[in-house]
Design a protein that fits this description.
There is one protein chain. The protein has 219 residues and is an alpha/beta fold. It has helices spanning 2-27, 43-54, 71-77, 96-102, 147-150, 152-157, 176-186, 203-218, and strands spanning 31-37, 60-66, 83-87, 113-117, 134-140, 160-164, 191-194. The protein has a 7-stranded parallel beta sheet, with helices on both faces.
Length: 219
């Protein structure tokens, strides 16, 4: 019982800070999404392709979360966008206070779109609100088609599912139809995109969706 009580208090404090983050994002009419996946699903590469497609139209900033190193932040910064690295030193997820602190190195008023790339993990990050407008979960075909059923909380709380690495479908034991069926079984309201960062397939519809979210946030 004491463990449950402590966890509840931690989440309550996190949610308080998340609401403050959300209010700040709304004040600046900034669309923010939380990018989530297991390690190796391709979320950093998807982010790179997204920046390539949108940087001429939108002002983009990135907060990178990793257990160690700033490798991903360096990758993203090469595209000329402001990027802040959060190193959790073993922590398996980002928390709202870490995002709040990282915002001190960014100017939200100078951005249209802020991407928070979370630590690679399909479990713990699902429980932590960071103040984002949407959770976007990336699932690669190489992971198999049973992940939505194994990690339902993540897919239940997500607004968008990106089925990535569809170019590998001929070589893996997974079907997109089954992934989508399982995901919608958990969350019928999911918006789903199919992408390949290698071929570029599916990137334009995904980026069009982001443009619409940014326009709505501005309005």
């Amino acid at each position: 019982m004491s463990i449950i009580t402590i966890e509840r208090k931690v989440l309550e404090k996190n949610d308080e800070i998340a609401e403050l983050n959300r209010a700040r994002f709304r004040e600046h009419r900034l669309f923010v999404f939380n990018l989530l996946s297991s390690p190796g699903a391709g979320k950093t590469t998807l982010l790179e392709r997204t920046i390539e497609a949108l940087r001429g139209d939108l002002r983009i900033g990135v907060i990178e979360g990793d257990v160690q190193t700033d490798v991903d932040a360096q990758r993203v910064a090469r595209y000329g966008v402001p990027a802040v690295q959060i190193v959790t030193n073993g922590g398996c997820h980002l928390e709202a206070r870490l995002v709040r602190d990282a915002l001190g190195s960014l100017d939200p008023g100078a951005l249209d779109l802020l991407v928070i790339e979370n630590v690679g993990n399909l479990v713990c990050p699902a429980n932590y609100d960071l103040g984002e407008a949407a959770k976007v979960v990336v699932l690669s075909t190489a992971e198999g088609d049973d992940k939505p059923l194994k990690y339902p909380a993540m897919f239940r709380r997500a607004s968008v599912l990106v089925v990535n690495k569809i170019d590998l479908l001929p070589y893996v034991n997974a079907k997109v139809e089954t992934i989508e069926q399982h995901a919608r079984q958990i969350n019928p309201a999911l918006t789903i995109f199919q992408t390949s960062c290698t071929t570029g397939e599916g990137i334009p519809p995904w980026c069009d969706w982001l443009r619409r979210q940014v326009a709505a946030a501005r309005a």
